[in-house]
């Protein structure tokens, strides 16, 4: 069993766990399918096995290589030490963005967003279809919106938002091409927290 399949979750297309990785190079490996959609540095983050990837909020980001995300996909990531208004994760194309601006408290889905208030500086944030989650519990939902992305999802910024980088650390990321159920998200969040 692996943490990204907790609760019976399926459909993982990219899974990264810099926390506990043997090296920066090893942290780029897509654990769900090594060799496919490994993370690639735009400008490499700082690496520490205890804290994972630390992004400077100015230049550092990674590309997941994952394209084709739709409104039915899911993601979760564990982060800490977040400051500023940068995007921890996402993509932008023709005003379609998928991802959160952590301490700014604005979460995007398609071309709509919600100002949910500042997220904590550390936690596990996720989205499964229109449903949002914080530390495994519901964080609200978006109204339905249909979109399909064609640019690669990025970590440490959102594709096309070159001036809004993430300042903080990321310990783990999982991207799914399925809509996870609430029990699955809760189980994965618990497993991520134990890393």
Describe what you observe in this structure.
The chain is mostly beta strands and 195 residues long. It has helices at residues 24-27, 182-193; strands at residues 12-16, 40-43, 46-48, 52-56, 61-63, 74-83, 89-90, 92-93, 96-101, 106-110, 112-115, 123-128, 131-134, 137-141, 154-155, 167-176. Strands 1, 3, 4, 6, 12, 13, 14 and 16 form an eight-stranded antiparallel sheet that branches. Strand 8 (92-93) and strand 9 (96-101) form a beta hairpin. The mean pLDDT is 89.
What attributes characterize this protein structure?
195 residues; mainly beta; eight-stranded antiparallel β-sheet; four-stranded antiparallel β-sheet; 2 helices; 16 strands; 8% helix; globular
Q: What is this structure, in a nutshell?
A:
The chain is mainly β.
Helix and strand topology:
Layout: E1 12-16, H1 24-27, E2 40-43, E3 46-48, E4 52-56, E5 61-63, E6 74-83, E7 89-90, E8 92-93, E9 96-101, E10 106-110, E11 112-115, E12 123-128, E13 131-134, E14 137-141, E15 154-155, E16 167-176, H2 182-193
Antiparallel strand pairs: 1-16, 2-5, 3-4, 4-16, 5-15, 6-12, 6-16, 7-15, 8-9, 9-10, 10-11, 12-13, 13-14
Sheet with most strands: 8 strands, antiparallel
Mean pLDDT: 89
- The low-confidence runs, each spanning 5 or more residues with pLDDT under 50, are none
Strand elements, count: 16
Shape: globular
What's the total helix number? Answer: 2
Q: Terminal Cα separation, in Å? A: 14 Å
Content-based structural category = mainly beta
Oligomer: single chain
Question: Helical content, roughly?
Answer: under 10%
Task: Give the strand content.
Answer: 35-45%
The run of helices and strands is EHEEEEEEEEEEEEEEEH
Radius of gyration: 15 Å
